[in-house]
Amino acid sequence: MSIDVALSNVSWKREGKMILSEIDWEVKSGEHWAVLGLNGSGKTTLLNMINGYIWPTNGTVQVLGNLFGKTDIRELRKSIGWVSSSLQERIRGTELGVNVVLSGKYASIGLYEHPGDEEYHKAYQLMEQLDCAELAENPYQSCSQGEKQKLLIARGLMGDPKLLILDEPTTGLDFLAREDLLESVSRMASEKGAPTIIFVTHHTEEILPVFSHTLLLRGGKVFDQGQTERVLTSGNLSAFLHEEVEVEWQRNRPWMLLKEKVKE
Ligand SMILES: Nc1ncnc2c1ncn2[C@@H]1O[C@H](COP(=O)(O)OP(=O)(O)OP(=O)(O)O)[C@@H](O)[C@H]1O
Questions:
Q1: GO molecular function, one example (predicted)?
Q2: Fewest CB atoms less than 10 Å from the CB: which of 51, 80, 86, 216?
């Protein structure tokens, strides 16, 4: 099995501070990983490194078989789909839903090309897959937060990426919209030929069964990584958070609660 992401002894230092320290992480082709960490733990920095926006101070980064430093990053980025809140803010409000999706083919923010029938067919197919085809003719600005995220995920898939990065895709969604989005992601991830997915979240219960592996990031270091059920235990997460928590698995999802403190 080939390895899609290989970070070896990766560190990143800024203004005298270690933002990432000695990260070793391997994501095999076809695996789906969740990355969990508190605010400021280095998740976005890690993703920026995988996308080649920043370079490690130490260590090596290999993505889809390309060793950074010896590869054309712009070309490589065409094989990576990326959905993040910063992307969401950059899309023009008047752009129609279908055009937002189509623009993913050209890795551009607006649509400046003239897509053919094949591209339109694919865009509609992806919107069907994510259950948002009815948004095709709607301006992006009129879509709800959850609808925008679905369009952006479809956009991310438009270029047939081998790797899809979803950076906190449920931020700002209400309970139902979140469950709906998670369901769409899970369905898409289970399809034959789905890309390898890295899903960044703050919430354990968003780690659906399709995310077979989890990486815990704390203070820029890997606290633990491996099979999700092994990593997300009450003991492990209590040590990770420096707070006593209990993990309850319901419907194959890990729900985390603060342990009740016994009053003296
Ligand atoms: N260019 C930079 N220069 C200096 N410090 C930085 C830089 N980029 C990030 N940091 C710091 O690195 C730490 C990790 O930031 P990062 O955004 O990667 O965390 P995160 O896990 O994505 O957080 P959140 O969950 O809040 O999005 C933070 O303390 C941040 O201030």
A1: ATP binding
A2: 86
Contact 233, 225 (CB under 8 A): no
pLDDT value, residue 114:
79
pLDDT for res 94: 94
Nearest atom in ligand 1 to the alpha carbon of residue 19 is: 12
Q: State pTM to two decimals.
A: 0.93
Counting other chains too, the contacts that 100-109 makes at CB distance below 8 Å and 24 or more residues apart are 100/140, 100/151, 100/152, 100/155, 101/126, 101/127, 101/151, 101/154, 101/155, 101/158, 102/158, 103/155, 103/158, 104/154, 104/155, 104/156, 104/157, 104/158, 104/159, 105/158, 105/159, 107/77, 107/78, 107/159
214, 232 contact by CB (below 8 A) = yes
pLDDT tens per residue, range 66-124: 998 888 888 898 899 999 888 888 899 999 999 999 999 876 677 777 788 899 999 99
The Cα 90–Cα 112 span in angstroms is: 15
Q: How close is the Cα of 196 to the center of ligand 1, in Å?
A: 24
Q: Of 245, 166, 236, 147, which Cα lies nearest the Cα of 206?
A: 166
Among 11, 21, 44, 170, which residue has the most ligand 1 atoms within 8 Å of its CB, making it the best to mutate?
A: 44
Q: Which atom of ligand 1 is nearest to the CA of 46?
A: 18
Confidence of residue 181 (pLDDT cuts 50, 70, 90): very high
Ligand 1: residue whose CA is nearest its atom 18: 42
- Nearest CA residue ID for atom 1, ligand 1: 14
Q: Strand order in 3-14's β-sheet?
A: 17-28, 3-14, 58-63, 66-67
The pLDDT-based confidence of 262 (bands split at 50, 70, 90) is low
